Every structure is written in C-alpha cells, then in structure tokens.
Amino acid sequence: SSQLTENITAVFTKRKLDEDTLQELEDILIQADLGVDTAMNITDALASQRMGKDITDEEVREFMASEVEKVLEPVAAELELDLDHTPHVMLVVGVNGSGKTTTIGKLSQKLYDAGFSTMLVAGDTFRAAAIEQLKIWGERTQSPVVSRPLGSDAAGLAFDAYTQAVEENRDVMLMDTAGRLQNKTELMDELEKIIRVLRKQDPTAPHTVLLTLDATTGQNALNQVEIFKDVAGVNGLVMTKLDGTARGGIMVAIASKFKL
What we know:
Helices cover 52% and strands 12% of the residues. The protein is an alpha/beta fold and 260 residues long. A six-stranded parallel sheet has the order 5-4-6-3-7-8, sandwiched between helices. 38% of the residues are buried.
C-alpha cells in the first residue's frame, strides 16, 4: 500500500542496515498486519544479506516483494470447477459487511462470460437488500435467483435450490449466506446445518467454500479464518476493500498460517 511504502521510505533514506533500522522495519511490517512470524522472517533474511551495508528504500521494497511472493505463490490458485459434479456448489461465507453478496455477483458475471450456466441462491434470508442485490445480478447474467421470504430457514432453501439446480442442469450453484459473527453460536450452527443438508444431496458438496474477508479487519481476520475453516471447510479466500486500507498485509499472514 502507499502507506507502507511511505513508512519504509522514511526509515531507509540513506541509511546503513543496522539493528535499529531492522527493528523499525519489523515494527512497520507488523503494523501493516503481515504478522509477527512473517515480519521476522523478512527482517532476518534481509539482515543475512545486507547487514552493515547501505540500502535504499527501493531495494527494501523489492526484497520484501520477493519474500511476500514466496509466501503467496504456493497457495495462489485459480478457481477450479469440478464439473464431474454438477451443479458445482459454491458457498460464500463471512461476517456482516465483508462483501459476500457483491462477490457472488462478480463471480456469476465471470462464470456467465465464460459460458457457464449459474443459479444464485439468496441464502441471506435476514437481509432484504441482499436478495434484491442478487436479483439484479441474476438479470445481468441470465441466472435464476432462488429466494424465500425474510426470516425463512436457509437450510430448507439450500435443499430446494439444489434440487432445482439439478433439474435445470445448472453448471454452478452460488449460494449467499447470512453475515454471521464467528462468536455467535446459533448462526454458526445454522451454517453447519446448511452444509449437512447439501451433503445429504451430494456427499461432496459444497465443492468450493469461499470466505470473504474485509482487509481493514486486521488481525481479527486470523480468528475468522480459523473458525470458519473448522465449521464450513473454507478452501478459498476473497479479500475485499484492499483499495482502501494500509492493512492488506493480513493476506500474507493468513497465507503463511493457513496455506489458503
């Protein structure tokens, strides 16, 4: 981010690499949410190569980019659809306001453009705006939107939607879910119920579980990943709001810890 760049520039203006500058760099990286382990790995690697030598802020940024790439590259993967199982069930989970519905809309557009037939399922049965938002995306991508009245049982909706997706021979079923705080037991129980219902119809479903994470969340995102991974079997991440934060480094910390 621009803030991270500015902070590094301020530290490494015509300076030799010594313990003080390394400590300042480590503090900057931790503040950017890269995590203590990643920050220490970067500063240790930098020290082993350049300790006591002149170094510029540009060289530090290039070195950092290389080290971050080593963390992200092994877990960076394109979204793959296993069309041996149709519909390919994609469940999108996360806390309130993290961008689930918008993510589903954008995914449906990409799938539509690639020639796949999709179905959108308005599983956030607590929020009228989410249902209306999905209907707009459905019109854009010629995708049916399956919804129920506000307050309906989301697991029952999942069952009906899957049945309809099979009948209509849809390639992909994209299901939204209600925003839930990871510490609200009853809402996490509901998510488990949705997954149980889907697995009764297809033991391999859901095939993709995406967790949307607001990049401004910072270190709390690690806790979200851990709990949603345990409950829902999250196997992919969508980072949102990266354009408005200096704290996108949390993605690196998550990749390092969870290999996602």
